[in-house]
Amino acid sequence: MNRRLLLRGAAGAAVALAAPRQVFAADYDLVIRGGRVMDPSQHLDRRVDVAIRDGKIVALRPDIPASAGVDSIDASGKLVIPGLIDIHLHARDAELPPPEILATGVTTMIDAGSKGADNFNQILDIARQAPNRLRVLLNIARLGNNPGGRGEFLDSLEQADVDKASRVIADNRDWIVGVKARLSKGIAADRDREVLKLALQVARPARVPVMIHVGNTATPLPLLIEMLRPGDIVTHMYAPENGILDASGRVLAQVRAARQRGVLFDFGNGLNEHWSWEVAQRGLDQGFAPDTVSSDLNVPGRTAQVFDLPNVLSKFLVLGMPLDEVIARVTSRAAKVFAPLNDYGTLRVGATADVAVLELTEGSFEFLDNYKGTRPGGRRLVTRAVVFGGKRVG
Ligand SMILES: [Zn+2]
User: What are 203-214's pLDDT values in tens digits?
Assistant: First the structure.
């Protein structure tokens, strides 16, 4: 034994006498044990334990004893995955508070255009108080989504104020990650291209992506997506009206070309005219899968069609997508969409410890599209435990 080891031993003995708690303290704050860890960012699908300390993932290895953690979660028989990232939902209402969404496993979420330049502070207040990571797409319409009201741009383009939107983004870079433009006829009439131009005028100098809401637009989809830049996002990609398919059900060449040059395609479940089983199945059968799967959850969606993001993911299992590919679309792939989120959606050692523990339950379930179409499924993902920033939720 050399002198250094002797000294360490002596110091350890001294600590043991003076403060026994330090010597016997757990190595970790939390250990998640016995689960099937599925982390597409590391191509990992293995039974392994996860150790968390100081808000970070610090170890992934088999057989970490529960006693090594101050707290532990028994995940046997369950999936342990990175905290879910939902890139399109609406967290604007008191009836759907962020804690409720976090409890479903969504540790990072994007409010996609609920508010615009005139009322951004309303969503900022919610984001500041959220127990999870809430970021915002600023609606190019000054007042944001106008649910139940008259479409934002039916009368004129006056509902957009490019200068004001640019100022709001510049003043809130920590919160705003992009711009949202809703282009359907009921919102933009035949002004969809003009609305998109205004959104791009705001997004370009701010170096953030634009997310366009499509389906039932006045202008055919290829003419809208040709205006998009790499990194911009098309949500409601499986909308049947004026969508990605030609008259014979083939994915349009211009749509594939847009993906080739880096335009992203998001699912966006929602409630009305955003997708049908048929379009989704045709898209998937032709290799045109979503880059990301989002819920477009809002208050009515809590109790109809959507319910929560794991339920939306279960629909992709019904459609035949392998489980690990489904998970990738709400973790590693979703994290790539917005630069400020690039470090999340992973269980790599050193990463922020956002974790969802899901159970793939078996039974007979019925899932809905936006047209009252039902499909039966034998598996449904259900959230069992959530960890945000190393802290167990609930
Ligand atoms: Zn939406």
Answer: 999 999 999 999
Q: How far is the CA of 319 from the centre of ligand 1 (A)?
A: 22
User: Residue 68 Cα, ligand 1 centroid: separation in angstroms?
Assistant: 43
Q: What is the pLDDT of residues 139-191, one digit of tens each?
A: 999 999 976 678 899 989 999 999 999 999 999 999 999 999 999 999 999 99
The rounded distance, in Å, linking the Cα atoms of 133 and 344 is 10
What one-letter code names the amino acid at 252? L
| Ligand 1 center from residue 257 Cα (angstroms) | 25
Calculate how far, in angstroms, residue 208's C-alpha sits from the geometric centre of ligand 1: 18
**8 A C-beta contact, residue 195 and residue 227:** no
pLDDT per position as a tens digit, 100-114: 999 999 999 999 999
Both tokens assigned to 175 = 């919160």
25 burial type by CB count under 10 A (0-12 exposed, 13-18 middle, 19+ buried): exposed
Secondary structure string (H, E, C) spanning the chain = CCHHHHHHHHHHHHHHHHCHHHHHCCCEEEEEECCEEEEHHHCEEEECEEEEECCEEEEEECCCCHHHEEEEEECCCCEEEECEEEEEECCCCCCCCHHHHHCCCEEEEEEEEEEECCCHHHHHHHHHHCCCEEEEEEECECCCCCCCCCCCCCCCCCCECHHHHHHHHHHCCCCEEEEEEECEHHHHCCCHHHHHHHHHHHHHHHCCCEEEECCCECCCHHHHHCCCCCCCEEECCCCCCCCCECCCCCECHHHHHHHHCCCEEECCCCCCCCCCHHHHHHHHHCCCCCCECCCCCCCHHHCCCCCCHHHHHHHHHHCCCCHHHHHHCCCHHHHCCCHHHCCCCCCCCCCECCEEEEEEEEEEEEEECCCCCEEEEEEEEEEEEEEECCEECC
State in Å: Cα 184 to ligand 1 middle.
12
| CATH 3.20.20.140 fits domain 83-341 | yes
| Residue 89: how many other CB atoms lie within 10 Å | 27
Domain ranges of the chain: 83-341
